[in-house]
Design a protein that fits this description.
Layout lengths: L14 H10 L32 E3 L2 E6 L2 E7 L7 E7 L13 E2 L2 E6 L7 E11 L2 E11 L4 E2 L9 E9 L3 E8 L4 E8 L7 E7 L2 E2 L2 E2 L7 E9 L2 E2 L6 E5 L8 E3 L8 E5 L4
Parallel strand pairs: 2-18
Antiparallel strand pairs: 1-2, 3-13, 3-18, 4-10, 4-16, 5-7, 6-7, 6-13, 7-8, 8-9, 10-11, 11-12, 14-15, 16-17, 16-20, 19-20
């Protein structure tokens, strides 16, 4: 698959908005050990496009976009196009042994509405982080630009996770994260008006801090066994494939093809 393109195309750069959100949410910064290594750490947020990004472009009959913090798939449309998104995955293992160059590394796995081309994200998912040579696992939700809220429930590698974000009525968002293996479900209801609902995505992310995108923890491979948007397979909606790269265009992980049931995988390549 093509990873670099030579024809410059003007793109929307959202990183500035992400930084504003980080600064505004400083008072709500989490205090857990997974957050202590950086200032204003957050596991979710807007899609950030690399400096001078080329795209999105059409390759092999589908749309491909580059990002420095997202990989996965996003269905896109007009404002108000999306009311729900779901996915299931196995919590991957953070491979932290031999972690010398970067003491702390991070990786997030989530579903959400918005964030691809809008200034909010309504999302919930899990993290698999490296605190030195130790792995850290937890669930969270976020109504970006508000700061994420971490759940206290136990998450372990190999757990069967499922997540959904659903919009109903004129302002109600219901965010559900479920760990079938551990036997818990977190349901959060938030009311907020004026959000675009112009994209629905299933994402593997390199989280950010107030200094920018953080090193991506080696999560091996994460496999999303099924995904939907508006109750229909994400794979049937011609979604945009998102490839995570650095600002030089080098891949940080890979994104597989998505099948008819919305299944796909991401595989780690390097931290940054």
């Amino acid at each position: 698959m093509l990873r670099r393109w030579s024809i410059p195309i003007t793109t929307v750069v959202i990183a500035f908005g992400a930084m504003l959100g980080l600064a505004a949410s400083a008072s709500a910064a989490p205090t857990g050990h997974h957050a202590a290594a950086v200032t204003h750490y957050r596991p979710g947020g807007l899609m950030v496009r690399p400096t001078g990004a080329k795209g999105p472009v059409r390759i092999g009959g589908h749309t491909v976009a580059q990002s420095t913090n997202w990989s996965g798939y996003a269905a896109t449309g007009a404002n108000g196009a999306f009311t729900s998104v779901t996915a299931s995955w196995k919590e991957p293992t953070a491979i932290c042994s031999g972690n010398r160059r970067h003491t702390h590394q991070y990786s997030s796995f989530w579903v959400g509405l918005d964030g691809y081309s809008s200034s909010s994200v309504e999302q919930t998912g899990t993290d698999a982080d490296c605190n030195g040579t130790s792995g850290s696992y937890y669930g969270w939700y976020e109504m970006y630009p508000a700061f994420p809220v971490n759940f206290s429930n136990t998450v372990k590698p190999g757990d069967s996770m499922s997540a959904s974000v659903t919009f109903s009525g004129t302002s109600t968002f219901t965010l559900v994260l479920k760990d079938t293996t551990q036997g818990w479900t977190q349901t959060v209801v938030k009311n907020q008006t004026g959000l675009a609902r112009s994209s629905a995505e299933v994402i593997t992310e390199a989280p950010s801090s107030n200094s920018g995108v953080l090193p991506l923890a080696d999560f091996g491979t994460v496999s999303y066994s099924v995904s939907t948007a508006n109750g229909t397979s994400l794979g049937s909606q011609n979604p945009t494939e998102i490839i995570m790269v650095d600002n030089s265009g080098a891949d940080k992980d890979s994104t597989s093809a998505i099948n008819g049931s919305g299944a796909f995988s991401n595989t780690w390549i390097r931290a940054n």
